[in-house]
Structure formats: C-alpha cells, structure tokens
Amino acid sequence: NKNTDKEASKKEKPSFELSGALLEDSNTFRGVVIKYSEPPEARIPKKRWRLYPFKNDEVLPVMYIHRQSAYLLGRHRRIADIPIDHPSCSKQHAVFQYRLVQYTRPDGTAGRKVKPYIIDLGSGNGTFLNNQRIEPQRYYELREKDVLKFGFSSREYVLLHESSDATEDDQKTEEEEEEESTCRADSE
Question: What SMART domains does UniProt report for this protein, alphabetically (predicted)?
Fold first, then answer.
C-alpha cells in the first residue's frame, strides 16, 4: 500500500504546453512563440508608409514601415519590430499588416492593391484607432492620417506616406496613375 502511495506522488503533473508536432508548427522567432501568423494575402507595399510618433507635443524619430509585409508592436524587445515600452502595453500587442485586397475602380472593373491594416493581438489594454478601441483579432484598414495609440500610453502614431505632404492638387490618385500607365502601354 505504501508503494502505490509513493508511485502516485511521483506521477507527472499534466503539462498544457505545446509539444511534439504542435510545437514544430508553432511560429517561433528568436526562441519566442509568436502569437501571430501572416495571412496568405500578405505583401510588401509599393507605397512608402511611415509612422510619425508624438509624445504630447514632442515629435519623435520617424519610423519607416514599408520594407516588410508585417510589423509586430509590443514590449518584448527581442521580437518586436516596433518596441512600445509603456507598462500598459502587452509583450505582443498588435501587428501592422499589409494585405493585397480587391477593390472596385470608378469604372466598375475590379482591381487589387496593397493596403495597410492593424490587428490587436488580444492585448490587455487595447489598441485605439482615431481614439476608438478596436476589437481584438480583427483587421482594421488604415488610411492616411489615421492616429494609433496602444494601451494607456500617451504616445500617438500618425500614419502617413511619402507623398502625404504634397498639396491635394499636386497629388494624383492611384486610379489616375494606373489609367495613365495603361494608356501609355496601349499607345506604344
């Protein structure tokens, strides 16, 4: 009877960690399991997007976010592409994701373009788009001049691209540029 008691106390406790094939399938980077996997429509953008961070009225260094298809934001400095150090932010807080999506041109034909999105990874204190908390685990399309905030940090990030500072009259829409390149190709 004493032997069975000893065996029972030596029994291994259940482990709910990933193991075997599940662990191999997990997305790890620098030894850390990443909560996020890129979708099949992930693309590197042609447009040169930038994040302009502000803390109160102080302008901080510009972040160039057009060189890869996704950027992980969070407190975990070993894996975050864009570190956010505020204690109210999660280790893996949110992801900027560029996605190739379909849209309808003004003439009714279908086109495809790469657009920026934000997804909150189930952070404790949320991600805010233009002062509205977004739902976790859902993509939100971002537009030029959108403002992002993470957790309770006072830092704001304004999304712009390289031609954002041009005047409205000088800017051509993507559709106009596409039409011009199509017309040039047709006339050659």
Answer: FHA
